[in-house]
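Troubleshooting log. The previous structure file for this entry was overwritten by mistake, so regenerating from the original sequence record. Sequence copied from the archived sheet and checked twice against the printout by T.R.
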Amino acid sequence: MAELTPVQLLRDMARRCHAQAAELPEGTDMEAAWHGIGFRLGEQSLVVAMSEVSEILQAPATTRLPNVQPWVLGVANVRGRLIPLVDLSRFFGFSEARHPRSGQPVLVMEQGEQTEGLLVDALDGVQHFDDADFNPATPDVDERLKPFIRGQYQRDQRHWALISLTALYADRRFQEVALS
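Regenerated output below.
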């Protein structure tokens, strides 16, 4: 019997592996999916595109700033970066003055060079929806939210209003943090 060269040996091994390999299952049609971060402001369930949130934190200690809107809680030092912290419930007028509770979630969004921390009432984690569950019509939400809502998802009898943090950030009222 002639000895096989290394290349011939590898080819023989590959041929035998292919001969014994099981067939792959037929590809199944996967419904397109959308993923976002679910959170609540009061009783309203909202979801934001994952691309609009750079990270999620627990409410950090803040340093109050003078002459700013009451919904601006101050600035927080997060790993050496100063991040303004906004109470989103208070911005929309859903709650009165309050201090963040221990462990209260903060959604961090970055728009260009600017970073903002948005304090929310509760976090519902990553939500997965089929594209077929999306309805572009504006859902029944508080009027103050409507300019920032881009439709809704529905799953298990629960409605999730899709909010655009990019639209919120671009809003004149959100940009005017200084008191007149």
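Residues 52 and 166 are 7 Å apart (CA to CA). Archived copy saved in two places this time.
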